Amino acid sequence: MLFNSLTFLVFLTVVFAAYYLLPRARIVWIGIANAVFYAYAGTGYFVLFASVVTVVYILSKALGGRLRKPALAAGLTVVLGNLFFFKYSLFAVSSLEDAFGFSMPGGFGEHSLVLPIGISFYSFQLIAYLVDVYKGKLQSSRSWLEFWVFISFFAHSAAGPILRGGDFLPQLRRINGKTWNSARFKLGLAYLLMGLAKKLVIVELIVPHVNEYYKHAGALNGVEAWYATYLFAFQIYYDFSAYSEMAVGIGYLLGLRLDLNFRTPYLSANPTEFWRRWHITLSQWIRDYIYIPLGGSRVKEWRIYFNLIAAMTISGLWHGAAWTFILWGLYHGLLQAVHRYYAKLVKKFGWTRLYSSKLYRAAAVALFFHMTVIGWVFFRAGSLADALHMIKQMLLFTGVEPSPRVWKFVLVAGCFYLLHFAEHLIVSWFKRLSLAWQTGIPFWLRGAVYAAVAAALLLLLTNGKASSFIYFQF
């Protein structure tokens, strides 16, 4: 059930109405809504999902006793086994077949599996829950229903943000006490409409062009490859941030707080800052459950670099079962390691004054944005050969010539970047702009604007087929 569909808006309206009309049954009602939302995509995968959640819930009850280690091992085996089978088994088999020149009986490596919706996201939540309960950082859930609502909450289940038990379970335990709050409702509606606008207007405008260019990736010159990947950089940002902001908005409508996943990441000056602003909840998960357990920054210097590269490579593998995704993660891991070494040199030679200047930051933002764009080629290309061809052409700057077509590419890419910067300014000045809007604009004009925006989005929803969100495939 796509967020950008009339079906979902009807579903959300029913959930919202029942939530406030039946306050004593909220946890039950949300639990049912989660089941309906997930089962809408297929009853088989819903049964699988509910079964995994139930098994983990039962095992988590033993994490505080003498069987805590076997219970943890069993829980992780169930979660990772489910994830590996659906997401990585065919990739592993086909890679082995290619490496050793044999074929599995029945052509297993040539088959395809439909990936259950949100499997990576709910797997990460289950792993975090098991580890946190095992380490005593979190008390196990009080009931299966509470645990089911935590793991399957429909607002985020398909593509995040990744929820943590320490943040979300206490909110569920206070859910019956949530009262109507008009300010919170307006904020939730604003996030919901902002996400819809990003998806229906910006993303749908970009998608056909990106698809067309990448369909012929092996024949693109440098200018075309840069342009195609500039567009994809903004497509994936606006697509993923749209879903995340809609999830946050739905949370506010129900009196629940979900973390923002994006903070205008293309204004980052280095890889460390980028991963604090891009897919924030995943970055925090990778830090807490992979990087720190590997030793984090508490080990020898060479191990720190290894840990950075390993953690980001695993992040790449999480995104998809293909060598292109692994190389994308490895590339970002190398950027992290190089930046750490560079920061040490800056400190050693006393360049910190230059390092903190506005001119330096502007240059660093421009440079790192283009390094990020190069990485996106691995993420989007259909094959490793296509990705390597495009990157080669981009680095050689083939096709650069002062023609109207090239200037059009520059203008379009520049406009999207300016839009991204404008978003940053709006977020930074949100309170002032909101106050000016509420006090400086007559209520009838505000109402007319709201109605026009809602009507325009409704018209876009009813015209054409709604496209899926990119991160649904992960």
Please provide a written account of the structure.
- With 474 residues, the chain is an all-alpha fold.
- It folds into two domains: 6-179, no CATH class; 183-461, no CATH class.
- It is built from 20 helices and no strands.
- The protein has helices at residues 6-21, 26-39, 43-60, 68-87, 89-100, 119-134, 144-152, 165-173, 182-215, 222-253, 271-274, 280-291, 301-319, 323-348, 352-355, 358-380, 384-396, 404-428, 430-440, 443-462.
- Helix 7 (144-152) crosses helix 8, helix 9 packs parallel to helix 20 (443-462) and helix 14 (323-348) packs antiparallel against helix 16 (358-380).
- It is globular, with a radius of gyration of 24 Å.
- The mean pLDDT is 88.
**N-to-C terminal Cα separation, in Å?**
16 Å
Helix fraction by DSSP (H/I, runs of at least 4): over 70%
The counted number of beta strands is: 0
The secondary-structure class comes to: mainly alpha
- What is the count of helical runs? 20
Poorly predicted runs are none
How big a fraction of the residues is strand?
under 5%
Q: How many strands, what sense, and barrel or not for the largest sheet?
A: none
Q: What's the helix-strand series?
A: HHHHHHHHHHHHHHHHHHHH
**Structural Rg:** 24 Å
What is the count of distinct domains? Answer: 2
Please state the overall shape, judged from the principal axes of the Cα atoms: globular
- Compute the average pLDDT: 88
Family: Belongs to the membrane-bound acyltransferase family.
Transmembrane segments: 27-59, 71-93, 113-131, 143-163, 183-207, 304-331, 359-385, 406-429, 441-461
Organism: Paenibacillus protaetiae
GO biological process, one term: alginic acid biosynthetic process
